[in-house]
Structures are given as C-alpha cells and as structure tokens.
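Below is how a single chain appears once it has passed through the pipeline. First comes the sequence as given, then the structure the pipeline wrote out for it. We keep one example in the README because the format questions we get most often are answered faster by looking than by reading.
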Amino acid sequence: MQNADSPAPQPAPAPQPSHAPQPPPAPARTPEQSTHGVGPWPGGPDAWPDDDRYDPELLANGDTRNVIDRYRYWSIGAIVAELDAHRHPFHVAIENWQHDMNIGSIVRSANAFLAHTVHIVGRRRWNKRGAMVTDRYQHIVHHDTIADLVEWAKDQRMPMIAVDNVPGSVQLETFDLPERCVLLFGQEGPGLSAEAMDAADAIVEIAQFGSTRSINASAAAAIVMHTWVVQHARLG
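Resulting structure:
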C-alpha cells in the first residue's frame, strides 16, 4: 500500500522514434549464393578497376557467388581461364546409370581440389543441385559407356584407379596414386560396375573402422581426391 507522503509515480516516457541508420536490405539471392558475398564496388563506376577480368554487372550490383575472395567480381570466363592455368593432372570419372544424387557433390569437390576434368559415364543428365554451381568452372565430359571412357584413357596414356571396397582392393592409405590418372567412382549402393572394375589398372579402398560397410560415395570421392593432393600438390 502506497504511503500518503510518497510522491506519486511518474508515467514512463513515451518511446522516441529512432534516428539510427537502418541496415540496407539484403542483396537478392542468386543460385550460387552460399555466403554473404560483397556489395557493389566502392566508389561507383569511376572507381572500377581497368581490367577485362572484372564483370561490369558484378561491379555494379555486388557478387554473392560461392567463390574465394581472389575471384570476387571476376567473370566466369576469367575464373575458368585462371583455373585452367593451374589445374591438377588427375581426372575424376563417375558412373551414372541410376541418376545418382551424389554427382553434384563430387563435381563440387573436384572443383575444390582443382581436378582437370570430370567424366560422367552413362546417363547424360545428372542432378546439379549438390554442385552449388561449381560446374560452371569445371570441365565436364560425357561418355556413353565405360568402354568409351577406357578408350579415351588409353589414348591419353592415363591409368584408371577405381575406388571400391571389394575383395582384392588395396588400401588407399598405402597406395601411391599416379600423378596423371583417372579416379573412377561408382554409384551409391551398387558401387562400381563389373565392367568398370575389369577395366581399372588398380582398385583401392578407404580404410574404415566402424560397423558400416561403406561410406557415402561423394565423401569417398573427396577423401581420395584429397589423398591425391597430399601426395602430389604443391602447397602454399
């Protein structure tokens, strides 16, 4: 109960409108956005770099693509040309008889590890969602059959190293991957076809220590590509 001698409580002050600057609206999403990216080039057109590698549309509107900072604002053609100058000599081949959902992720890993080319064997169409648009920067070739891939590899004098945990395979961790080679992967579930294994110059498997028989096909492909990097790539 309030004391009669106590001052009456004062009403709380009404909230005042805020004059603090509001953050700008988020940039429109693009199919390639996986990070916040960067906004328009500071300073406007007068400050744009005089360099043909830069894309005027990206300079004007910002770059939300999933690319490293070095390639911010560069056109796709300029990025591909730069990557082509440094690509590693290993290739990646994937069987695609059942429209495998892992192919997109494998293409993304091939881009990350700078594989020379990705070869898709079987169905021409593949699910690109997992690639996160990295297929724009990665050379991709289609072969109708394993025989077509084998003929191409022989013409290039390039050994094919199949990856599957089958009897007679060699542990990847003890195997010296050739510098120039095709890393051949099967589909989720059935693995490599018998024709692919028969055509391979070697078959390797990834060491596992748990209860599962196999790991995801895209995860296996990333492990093998990284093993190639550890053995052959120039770091730094």
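The longest strand covers residues 90-96.

See the next section for the split statistics.
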